[in-house]
Every structure is written in C-alpha cells, then in structure tokens.
Design brief:
Shape: elongated
Largest sheet: 23 strands, mixed
Strand content: 35-45%
Radius of gyration: 35 Å
Length: about 650
C-alpha cells in the first residue's frame, strides 16, 4: 500500500510539474513567439540587407496570431512592404506536427511596392548571390534535386497558406519604373467556405481595367479552381508586358484548375484544366498582325518524380477545331538533360486544320478550303549527353486530299509568270516579273547544265527526288546548332528557300517557319508547281551579290557572260556564294584571286559533278579554285560600289 501511495504521489507531482510548465509556457508564449520571430528576422536582415519592423506581435489563445504595423525596407531603398494588421487562426494539431494550415485570416492595409529608379531597385536583393560560405558544398555532400519533393513542398505551402475562410481588405501591389507604373488593387478579397471572389482594379499608366476573379480552393482535397474575366465587358489586357517586351495579350475569359495527388512511390500527379476564350496575341517576333485564337483548352495530366517531369499522353489539347494528345518528358540524370516530345494525330478532316489556324499567324493560308483527311506524326528526342543520338521525325500524311479553293494567296502562282519583290529587313528593294516579259529572265534550258548541277549539289542535291523536306538534313542541322549553342544551320531545301522568298520574304518571325512548312507541303504534295519550274524560278530570283538577283545578272556581274557560257570553275564559284551573297568578297584574297581555303569546296562539288555525269573524272581532278572576275564585281573587290546594284526603270 505504501508503495502504491508513493507511486500516486510521484505521478501527481510529475503531473503538477508538467501542468506548471504548460501554464508557464502558455503565459510566456508571446515572449517566446517574439524571440523566435526576432531571431529569424535578424538573420534575414543580415543576409539580405533589410530593415524589418513590427509594432505588435502576440498570440490570442493557442492558435491565433496577431501582427500589427509591419514594414520591410531594403537598405537605402524605398519601402517594399507595409501591413496595417493581420489576424491568423492556425490549425493547432497541424502546428504540433510542424505543419502550417491556416483556418482563417483577416488582414487590412497590405501594400507591396516594387520600385526602380534608373538602375536602383528596392527588390534587387532578391537577385543577389548568396555569400560563398552559404552555398559552398563538396561534390560528396551536394544534395540531389528531387523534383517531386520540391513541387510537393511548394504546393503544400500554397495550400496551407490559403485559408478556408477569411477576408483581406485594401490590398495594393504596385510596380514603378521611373515614370511608368502598374498597380493592382483589391478593395476586398473574400473567402467563405472555400470559395473566393474579388474585384481587381488594374491601373497601368493612364489605362484602367476592372477584373473579377472567383473560384474555390480545398486544402483537404488539394484542389484549386479559378476564373478571371473583365467586369466592364472589355477584354482582359495583361499589364506590364507591353512596356517591357513590346507584346500585347488580351482575352475574354481565363479559367484554371489543379488537383494534386501523391502516388505510392511519392510521385506527384497533377491534373487539371486551363481554358482561354477570345485570346489575342501580338508581338512582331511572332507575326506582323494580331494572332487570334477563338477557343483553346488544355486538359493536362502531369507526372513528377525525383528526376523528371512528364506530360502524360492522356493530356488533351483543344485548339479551335483541332484536338490532339501531346506527350512531353524532361529528365535530368547525372547533370545532363534528356528531352522527349511527341504528337500522334490519327486521321481527321483536313479542313479542321486550316480552319483552326489562328488568324493573323498564317496570312497566306487564310480562307483556304480543302477536302480529304490528314494524319500527323511528330517525335523529337534529345539526349544532351549524346547529341548524335538525336531523333527527329515529322510527317503529315494525306488521304484523298485536295485544295478546293485558295485563300488570301494563290499557292500555284509560280507556275506562270508572276511579279516578284525582293525584301531586305522587311523593306522592298527590287520588283520584277519572273517570266519572258523580263529581259533578265533566263529559261532553265538556257542556263549552263554545269551551273544548274553545281547549285543543286551545293544547296539541295536531292531536290528532284524529295517532297520539300529532308529530315536527315534538318536533324543534322539541329544537332550542330545544339552543339554550338546558336542557330548556325537551317537544313533548308530549295523548295523551302523558294517559299520563304516568294511567299514570306516580308515576315521574319517565328510563325514564318510554321507557315513555310505548310506551304511547302501543299506545293509539293499537290504538285502545284513542277520541280523544273520551281528550279527555274529559284535560279532567277536567288541573290548572287548586293542587289544582284538571278543568274543572268550574276553571270554578267562577275564574268560578263550569258548563263549558258559559264565554265565549270565559274559555276562552282557562283554556287559557293549563294549562302552569303552580300559577303562574296570574303572568298577573295587581296590579290583578287580566290583564297586557298576554297580548294576543299571546289574538290567536293567537282567530285559530285563527276558522280552525276556532268563532267568526267579526269576533268574533276583538274578543277582548281581559279577564276577571272571580269564584270562589275571587280569594282566591289576594289572597294567601289557595284554599278549593277541599281534597278532599271523597267524593274521598278
């Protein structure tokens, strides 16, 4: 009995001590909270050069924190953040497990101001490098990036900080750069039972907009839905990018949803939908006109594990009348990236493709009508550790395909005489007909066979056998560009060069490559112009020097000859300067003779000419880079302006 009494006494004593500790902890919770916060803010101040001040910080009960009079001021900079007051209720049990989950928040007077005057900004501390002692790690201790873990932490933080109920009043976010500014103001942001709504006022310099944002967020289900649209029957215009990037993006409605799931192997699965209606995009690098998309929708499924991101092939993209399933995988192993992208679109009505092309992006194809069916296959696989293993496949198949009527441009115009305009940097410099009415026009059979074959073997040896594209050449060009980390090669065929010059010469932008590919496919697949006529047009419009267009001008400019009189050496020289017509002088030494480094090129083309039976093997062995410039090009070699650079009155 005595032993039991002692145990009860000890138990009661321990319980009493624990109770006293808990009471003491409760009573000193505010001092403890401020101590923890002050220690953390002191570290942030020293690391980033900030002054962080608050008037009051306290706990109400065990799960409510009140903060008043907060300000964040970078050293010798304008104030970045001010907060009048905020009251936050946390989930107590989550807090015990070191997880933050906000149940309710009430805030007032939040002002976030990003300012930059000349080169001084109050947010530049965000981009400063950390001190070396904070970032130095040995190869053995350097942590490996786990993408699934990182994404999960970020989303948990976002979901945890978004309460199920609350109200934020008088929120203002501004960005000011010298005399320009953008402000985003929310008089109130109300969250009630997981649903939120707010009116947003956007002021950019003198332009004012009023938006409405609403949606719902469920912490328990890790889900988010949001919609944004204009409250005054106008399109939403994205601020800042016009001033910063010269672009303009507007839309009628934007909606987005996201749900997160965790797999058995801690893989993160993201599912959701993004939809935009009435999207208009303008940037001169994309198109000289506004690009319009009536309807676009992405239903995505993304899988994220430790080393890779994968857009699953169950993802659906709706693009006006088109629907397809893209696949994308990005993986990083041992410091090297591996990129895979694929699209396989089975048979669909051909007109759905052309009716879905955004207005303003494919100006030559607007209004085109077609019949039949199309199917498309695309694969790009790049392992940056083994660039030579790169795979590139792109094939557009047709079934009973026909062009019923052309749209803005007749794609068969090259079959007959037409008016050609040469452009430089978007500015027209020469206009002349491609046909018998032009005195400089030379029919194909009046051009030296050696010149015809030399150009073909230099630019596109398989021109008469392919259908506009050489996948192997495009693949090799892409490998080389990735190796040198710049656009050095294009892999263009003669058809592609021809389409670029005849149909797209004015528009040098990203969209041009897509339009170029479609026009090339249409011309070659439908045989809108014969190969012979295309090559004839090519030789009559290609630039052979500064403002020297076509083989007849080139023959006279360099050698005072007609195209039928060119020698083998002269033909090979003319073929060599097509890629760099304005810099042809770089092929010559100061003596006026071709440089010795041209010998390799001459031997290569001569060998190919012999293989094609245009010259004999004996003649090929005797070919040397030796020519005599007798035309007006001599003046250019001497540093004078070429006399033939001015168009005649007939060509204006």
């Amino acid at each position: 009995m005595k032993k039991n009494s002692k145990k009860h006494i000890l138990l009661l004593s321990a319980s009493g001590v624990l109770l006293i500790c808990l009471i003491s902890l409760y009573l000193s919770r505010n001092a403890l909270l401020r101590s923890i916060v002050d220690k953390r803010t002191s570290h942030i101040e020293q690391t980033h050069g900030l002054r962080i001040h608050y008037d009051n910080l306290e706990m109400n009960g065990l799960n409510e924190i009140i903060l008043e009079g907060l300000s964040v001021v970078p050293e010798q900079r304008d104030t970045l953040l001010t907060l009048t007051s905020i009251r936050v209720k946390l989930n107590f049990w989550k807090l015990l497990s070191r997880k933050i989950k906000i149940r309710y928040v009430a805030a007032d007077g939040i002002t976030l101001a990003f300012t930059k005057r000349d080169s001084v900004a109050n947010y530049d501390f965000l981009f400063r490098k950390k001190p070396e002692y904070l970032t130095r790690t040995s190869p053995q201790t350097a942590p490996q990036t786990n993408y699934a873990e990182r994404i999960n932490k970020i989303l948990n933080l976002c979901y945890g900080f978004m309460p199920e109920n609350g109200q934020l009043n008088n929120i203002c976010i501004t960005e000011r750069k010298n005399n320009n500014f953008v402000s985003l103001t929310l008089p109130s942001f109300i969250i009630k039972e997981n649903h939120f709504q707010s009116v947003i006022t956007i002021q950019e310099d003198s332009l004012a907009q009023h938006w409405i944002a609403n949606g719902e967020l469920h912490q328990h289900y890790n889900s988010l839905k949001a919609t944004l649209y204009s409250s005054d029957s106008l399109k939403v215009s994205i601020p800042y990018i016009t001033r910063s990037y010269g672009a303009k993006i507007t839309f009628d409605t934007l909606s987005y949803s996201l749900t997160k799931e965790i797999g058995s192997s801690k893989q993160v699965y993201l599912k959701g939908k993004a939809r935009v209606n009435g999207l208009d995009v303008f940037h001169k690098a994309l198109s000289p006109e506004i690009i319009h998309l009536d309807r676009g929708q992405l239903c995505y499924e993304m899988n994220i594990n430790g080393h890779s991101f994968e857009l699953d092939s169950t993802t659906i993209v709706d693009f006006n009348k088109l629907q397809f399933h893209p696949y994308l995988r990005v993986e990083k192993e041992k410091g090297n990236w591996h990129f895979t992208a694929a699209v396989n679109k089975s048979w669909f009505p051909a007109d759905d493709l052309f009716n879905s092309l955004p207005k303003g992006l494919f100006s030559n194809l607007e209004g085109i009508k077609t019949s039949g069916e199309l199917a498309y296959h695309f694969l790009l696989d790049i392992d940056f550790a083994q660039l030579d293993s790169l795979k590139l496949e792109s094939e557009l198949k047709e079934k009973d395909f026909h062009i019923i009527s052309y749209g803005a441009t007749s794609l068969s115009k090259m079959s007959d005489e037409f008016i050609y305009t040469a452009y430089e940097n978007g500015v027209p410099v020469r206009t002349f007909p491609i046909g018998p009415s032009c005195k400089h026009f030379t029919p194909l059979d009046s051009i030296s066979p050696i010149l015809r074959m030399s150009v073909m073997q230099s630019e596109d040896g398989a021109f008469f056998y392919h259908r506009g594209f050489l996948p192997d050449a495009l693949r090799e060009a892409l490998i080389y560009d990735l190796q040198v980390k710049r656009f050095a090669r294009g892999g263009s065929t003669i058809t592609m060069q021809l389409v670029k010059n005849v149909f797209l010469n004015r528009n040098k932008n990203f969209a041009r490559k897509l339009e170029e590919a479609l026009i090339v496919w249409l011309i070659e697949n439908e045989r809108l112009t014969s190969k012979e006529r295309m090559y004839e047009v090519y030789l009559n419009i290609v630039e052979w020097g500064p403002l020297v267009y076509g083989i007849q001008e080139a023959s006279a400019y360099y050698f005072k000859k007609r195209p039928s009189q060119l020698t083998t050496e002269e033909s090979i020289f003319l073929a060599s300067i097509i890629p760099k017509p304005k810099h042809f002088r770089s092929s010559f030494a100061e003596s006026g003779q071709l440089k010795e480094n041209m010998e390799g090129y001459y031997k290569l083309i001569a060998k190919r000419l012999a293989q094609q039976g245009v010259i004999s093997e004996i003649e090929a062995d005797s070919i040397r880079p030796e020519i005599q410039v007798t035309g007006d090009a001599r003046n250019s070699l001497a540093g004078e302006k070429p006399e033939s650079s001015s168009p005649t009155a007939e060509e204006q």
